Amino acid sequence: MNYFSTNFTLGILGGGQLGKMMLYETRKWDIKTHVLDPSIEAPCRIAADYFEQGDLMDFETVYSFGKKVDILTFEIEGVNIEALEKLEEEGIKVYPSAATLRNIQDKGIQKQFYKKHQIPTSAFNVFENKDSLNHAIFQKEISFPFVWKSCTGGYDGKGVSIIRAAEDLIPLADGACIAEDLVPFKNELAVIVARNPLGEVKTYPVVEMEFHPEANQVEYVICPARIDENVAHKAREIASKVSEAFKHVGLLAVEMFQTDDDEILVNEVAPRPHNSGHYSIEASYTNQFEQQIRAILDLPLGNTDSKAGGIMVNLVGAQGHTGQVVYKNIEKILAMEGVTPHIYGKKETRPFRKMGHVTIVNKDLDKARKIAEEVKKTIEVITE
Amino acid sequence: MNYFSTNFTLGILGGGQLGKMMLYETRKWDIKTHVLDPSIEAPCRIAADYFEQGDLMDFETVYSFGKKVDILTFEIEGVNIEALEKLEEEGIKVYPSAATLRNIQDKGIQKQFYKKHQIPTSAFNVFENKDSLNHAIFQKEISFPFVWKSCTGGYDGKGVSIIRAAEDLIPLADGACIAEDLVPFKNELAVIVARNPLGEVKTYPVVEMEFHPEANQVEYVICPARIDENVAHKAREIASKVSEAFKHVGLLAVEMFQTDDDEILVNEVAPRPHNSGHYSIEASYTNQFEQQIRAILDLPLGNTDSKAGGIMVNLVGAQGHTGQVVYKNIEKILAMEGVTPHIYGKKETRPFRKMGHVTIVNKDLDKARKIAEEVKKTIEVITE
After folding, report:
1. For residue B22, with 0-12 CB atoms within 10 Å meaning exposed, 13-18 middle and 19 or more buried, which class applies?
2. Residues in domain ATP-grasp (chains A, B) (predicted)?
3. What CA–CA distance (Å, rounded) separates B82 from B58?
4. Chain B window 80-119: which residues touch A at a Cβ cutoff of 8 Å?
5. pLDDT-derived band of residue B153, with 50, 70 and 90 as boundaries?
6. What residues in A contact B363, CB-CB < 8 Å?
7. Is the reported ipTM for this assembly greater than 0.85?
8. Which among A242, B273, B279, B314 could bridge B310 via Cys, Cβ 3.0 to 4.6 Å?
């Protein structure tokens, strides 16, 4: 198959920042793209060869969009799987496949998949709804504290709560959910795995999420993780195993816990390029978006090593600011060494909305970490 | 001035591959762009916020395009300067300025500028037309061999000839021209200089053009150049001086000769991102296109150091092939370490047409050089 400067067409479901960064790569290789997104203001509204506004969860919309492309992928999990299945039956290649997405989209099914495939993960129970969860607590089948997760619709910390006492249950939404053991951990890690249809697999170095000491929010994604080499090796092995178990094609971001006794437990996965891989645009020989294109087009996978240490800081809307965004002091961070801001192109900021990210690269990771702290102190995502 | 996710508009004259790569950076920072190009098939036809088809040499077209933007730049020197002058008078910022472009666009004026500013360059004479050149030869005011250059319209080796005897004069076009001393040189070098309106200047490392031993064509652009440190230092100093003499704003590519006795002579300049800086996309902390945006928007300039050694190979159309392009064996070069092809998006190949380039990055420059040779042997730009 010849993809470069031809009529071959790649379809992308979702036109947000991940799609936007994927389009840098399709443009670099002159690969024709179609993008579907519900918002006419989506970051992918330009740079695709064809942009369509439409509902990603609507069968007919996704199906008729998919019929016009040769290979279909997605940059968000919330898409109509039945349409993907019908497209596959009719010969359209969908990567990752509908079957893989079925095993991931519902967190209850995802956890059961790990259990079935002997992938280490925290102990859990699945409940059909809030009532059955309450009943299990009442029957002392599960006990506080535990981690509650909604089976569907969770994203960026939404749909996840730590339940320490009965009153924490009150605000939870109804619906299918899981209750997981709250495992004490030293580190939250992630590994991005690329796998192509031929079954070639490559893993990126382990990244580490450094949390704010008080706010319990990820502040820095650091590559490579400052952990023991054996633990890093184990994390990459497990991530490969997860990708192979899913027969996943494309990128799979595997989020993991490093427990106090250096066990690795898989927390959850995302079947697409991921926030934890953004550092790769500046730091890696092959960035995650190019790797995604290589994987789904069945091209040889690229080198996942880093050219330099990389740290990523998310740019999220400041509290108390809603409206036309201003990136205050962006010129100050541009004067810092090895600093590259990425602005996603959302015109309106809201508290905690992901508006962009900043990458800091440096051969000396400690130096990068210090500059990252300066970046975080300096830039503000506010309104005028 | 706030450029990010606002209504600020950057205008770009020319929508070829340089403009296309510049748009990766405007997209990364969500800077609104307008692009003007004569071809509806131009690589920038997508990814700009607004694309206009029109003649870059036509006063009215350039003027009315420029009136709709806040800052205007160009990715090709062949634009209507009178329109730029009028736009400047009316308060539109044009970077590089019309005055700078006037000093560069005509090679006779450019050479006289170097002489006036004591910038080392080969000895030369300017002639109004072919007749006056012939007359000077007849009068023995100049002697064979010499380098003939057309004052205007030269590009990619067109408009340049080495004249060794009277019969070499016959095919030359009529028009203003220069006759330069043919200086024996060890190396052809280039330095990219960035300068912002505040006068902040940064130079990139020296790159070296490695020629094919027989074909006398540049085969590899190598960064850093494999030359003595003192010579490299001198080349960067001279390049800075050239940029400052021109009061240039934006990127200036300074092409130079290293003579047999290690003198540096300025050959010519290009007031824009340049083929010799393409390696920077993968190899530098700040790639040349981001640097161009930083410079013309008066933002702090970024680090020009390299993360790794970089080698660039042009992808030009093979002889004997005209028509719908095929990049034969591209999947084979994708399997080589640290190899990134860039496909410009021209559908038709022709002999020697620049269709793309390939960058090879590696911490070990010798290893990169070996891989570059494999790349060159493997990929073919042909028709089916």
Report:
1. buried
2. 111-297
3. 10
4. none
5. confident
6. 307
7. yes
8. B279
